[in-house]
């Protein structure tokens, strides 16, 4: 299971397949491989657009499964969930229906930093997603293991199309093929995956599951570049064996805020989480056993997520810290399993057991699942167009962890974009991707296809240059009208937005008309100490404005100066984005272009000057040369 082993895969010859030679043959517009977070959103989006869609996944009992922590959202990730929801995706409603605790992070900071996060009842979440998929018209969910991608030479004469191959379907285990006009690959951490716990290694993309080798072979045969990443997960404990009296309680918010713009209120009861701490004795134990940690023994040499380090990593990198927080998160209402957030590890089992003996409250804790690390193949995403279609194989889309990202939310967002664009491609429509100034999802896909990633990519607010505009509270105002035009949403969501916009309009009118202390009420509201409840006392008509619309009125008015300035930056950037570069543009024509710039531009093939500017190592002088040639 090493990269070099891939070349040993025999060429399957299936690209020359006689389509009629398979007894079991199914025809679809879009086939999605893998029903994780990317695959389920991709399939749902494609089917909502009317494309006949098949979602093929190895095990129907793991649809929408959370491989790692039982939580959705968090800083920048919560914003993505709100965007997925605003575009008609599944994730927001699923977590609202199944969460056991809600918290709005960074409440003390400005609204751009407010980030919703919720603990999920893991099994219920998964069942909810599965039910949504099963109930979706135009969508067939099937238990199938995909073994190969079927392609044929591309016959396109379109100079805008760079692909030399075209996908025509997939072959599954057991002599059956699914033919399709587009295929979306969302196999997560399963490609040639190896799990590590101490010295022990086994093949598999997630504990208790197998690995996928055929798809790596197919990608290799199709000349895709593949690389390796690793990620890890912590042990799970039995709550019965934890002494909760010794550890701090972390309750949910008193007024839980839903993720979905369609959920009016959260009425379910919330469960508490708890916070424990590591100590010097634990750190000493880890240091003594570092040679047995696959990361340090040389057993793993691929890159892991820098911002989600294992406990052995933390002890080495932050050697001066005498303690780290451990968040004990229940995995659901009907299980005693507790996820220990903060202690991801691939140390051997005996060391994992011994670590807990040294932590107050967890001395007697019994591990139900040991932590492990997993190494897997991913496809460097500069091989994709922004709409997530391969540059070399037409009709083949890639979304989720296979593109080098980490996280359920990043996967879900990419899935939605891939599903939407696969269905639009089948319908002969132009592709659609949100711009960086419109959504974190725009930042995500642009970062991936323009810069690639040399470590598992997760979203941060700092990745977005216009984050004052990209708030969790306004994702519907930013995206739902576009989703409506694209056919992604239905009447209740459309009506909900219209109602909210109308309420905002009325609120703004009332504020402009009323006077407080001789100045217009909206000017008075700008004062930092003035809140909406105070305004309602002074202008009682404002009581008719619903809380979500009131929040928008407040933010629009209080932050008007900052928002206007950011909008001016957006407009400036927009002018560069309008300077389009043809796909077939030949950078070799620019004799004076530096070799590094020529190579990078040829590899990424930016679609406009603004994207070219974001490629690392491209200088203003390179851009000036490209611009000069574009204008000739
Ligand atoms: P997945 O959710 O992995 O879904 C892939 C799907 O494809 C699965 O349903 C699988 O059965 C199916 N599949 C695979 N091969 C085939 C095939 N040949 N045919 C049919 N179906 C197939 N993220 C974080 O943000 N933080 C973390 O700390 C973190 N830790 C992780 C630890 C572990 C051990 C793992 C495995 C993942 C971790 N992740 C973490 C990542 C997170 O789980 C993923 O980012 C997210 O699940 C990716 O979603 P996805 O849809 O791309 O893939």
TrEMBL record:
Predominant location category: cytoplasm
Pfam family, one: SAM_GIDA_C
GO biological process: tRNA methylation; tRNA wobble uridine modification
Location within or outside the cell: Cytoplasm
A GO cellular component annotation in the UniProt record: cytosol
Binding site for NAD(+): 304-318
One Gene Ontology term of the molecular function aspect: flavin adenine dinucleotide binding
Positions bound to FAD: 34-39, 146, 212, 401
Cofactors named for this entry: FAD
Quaternary context: Homodimer. Heterotetramer of two MnmE and two MnmG subunits.
Family, as annotated: Belongs to the MnmG family.
Protein purpose: NAD-binding protein involved in the addition of a carboxymethylaminomethyl (cmnm) group at the wobble position (U34) of certain tRNAs, forming tRNA-cmnm(5)s(2)U34.
NCBIfam families xref list: mnmG_gidA
Name of this protein: tRNA uridine 5-carboxymethylaminomethyl modification enzyme MnmG
Name of the gene encoding the protein in the UniProt record: mnmG
